[in-house]
Fold this sequence. Notes:
- Chain A is of the alpha/beta class.
- Chain A has helices at 42-50, 74-80, 97-104, 110-116, 133-147, 163-176, 222-241; strands at residues 2-13, 16-27, 31-35, 56-64, 67-68, 82-85, 151-155, 189-193, 207-212, 215-220.
- Chain B has one domain (3-354).
- Helices cover 17% and strands 41% of the residues of chain B.
- Chains A and B meet through helix 2 and helix 3 of A and helix 5 and helix 6 of B.
Amino acid sequence: MHLLEIVDLSVGIGNKQVLKNFNLKIGQGETHALFGPNGTGKTTLLNVIAGIPRYTVESGQIVFKGEDITHMSMDERARLGIGMAFQRPPAIRGLRLKDLIKIINPKADAQEILKRMDFTAFAERDVNRGFSGGEVKRSEMVQLLAQQPDFVMLDEPDSGVDLENIKLIGEAINTLTQKDLRPSARTKSGIIITHFGHILEYMKADRAHVMLNGSIVCSGNPAEILGQIKKSGYEGCAACLCPA
Amino acid sequence: MSMSGIEEKARLAREKKALYGTDVDMQSYESEAKPQSVVENAEDLPSVVKKAALDVGVKLDGESSGEYVQMDQTPVVAKSLYEGVEIMDIASALKKYDGLADYWWKLVAPDADKYTADVAAAPPAGYFIRAKKGMKTVFPVKSCLYLGSTNLNQRVHNIIIAEEGSELHVITGCTTPAHVQRGLHVGVSEFFIQKDAKVSFTMVHSWSKEVEVRPRTGITIAEGGSLSNNYILLRPVKTIQTFPTATLAGRGAVASFNTVIYSTMGNIDVGSNVNLNAPETSAESISRVVSVGGEVIARGRMTGRVPGARAHLECVGLLLSDKGRIYSIPELDGQSRDLDMSHEAAVGRISEEELEYLMSRGLNSEEATSVIVRGFLDVEIKGLPEDLKQEIKNITQREDLKGS
């Protein structure tokens, strides 16, 4: 069974159509990478799966765990098992990170999670307030490790992150997507947007897609696709590996 | 000013309306209160009073530097529990210190308006707190002003003196029990913070829907002295108007005002007014207002009169309903060169982005709103003892704070 299935999804924001007859299936235990130039709809896709209300679904369906979630509220989707690491999350004044961890999951071992992400010093800080680009990414991973979603969406978790921390983040993604288990035992899945692909050296992705103008134009092996993008650009990659 | 001079001024100002706030019909309140019985220790007070005090952050458990409780017009406990602090009811202090000539009505004018005039005309009741020279309190002095009779005009006149080099923390809870339908509370407070003394004054108000409140506060801070003034109002009230005025009179004096308001109804007109009259003085005023109803006027005024004075005002409001109004009035008055004065004011709604962020973690919209509102009201107050900080946090965090 596919954990996530997106069928002929068209999405607009204002008068602009940002996803056109979009299709994607992600199986249980699979982690997919999403490549594409800026403004092509990658973040929109993740936001729409998360259920951020400012987008209008014009047609199509999002099915998660066999359930149609197209019009479900964000928090219902989160409780059903969808989690997201935001590219640029907001700061929340007066809400300490350790308190948010407790709110997200009262049973989570906050200390252990913070230690693992080398983030203990930020436990008492207001969530994301005054955090650097790289610290924000670790804050996102800390929250997801507490949330333990069945399907994790990562919007550029490596941007602005130094080399040491990319490794930490990559390993956390492997934990979230159960890459420590043998493939047939994995039930959790993920999707990651990355521009340069550095993070893929530290985490396992099973499949990759190239997105152009709101649609997937090419899919295949992550290393192969990334190599081709580096060689001939996004459009060149699609033309070469996946000719129409 | 002689006692007869005070009375004369008060008599002439009996009809004088206040500059700000709605006008209270004083005649509709009773000025005579039934006397209450005095107790030896605060622990012996009726449980209804202790409970009401606890509700405004005043735990009367003897773990304090001293206690003062006033029920209606009667000081029922006035007791020092630490040699460094003298605590008396104000009538006794006037007797002991020969009319407190250097302090009585020195920072608030008896003819400022009809409320001060009314207090000046009434027999004095209130607290006298004196931190002795060089003595530092660890536990706060706890006081509770309890308005327990319907329709009463409760009048209070307080004096705080922090002598040179002393450190004093005071928490005052002003409250009415649920059975009191209607009332008026007028409190005159005069604080003298002497050279190098450090004072924190935290006031928590919890009134009911038909109670009107008019505190009148004057503060002077000498060289090297500091004040952290904290005001918390989270429960319904009919009207409140207060505009405490602090004068930084000596070199390096510091004042910080923190105001936290959650408004559901009524007319709340609060703020702070600071005069920076000496070199190297600095003042900060931070107010956070959440409104789901009622009118809140958040004032802040800083006047810089000497080079090098620094002042910052911050009024931030979250307006969560069409039934509410937040009117933020920050004023900076520079009267010298080389001043550093700034303000920041914003009134708005909860950011969609913050709500969505928390909802993506599984909080429903109500829970997310509540978390954001609590965070917003959680003002970081510097210079308070840890347990007092915790007490304030408990008060702002326990309430059922919602959006509209």
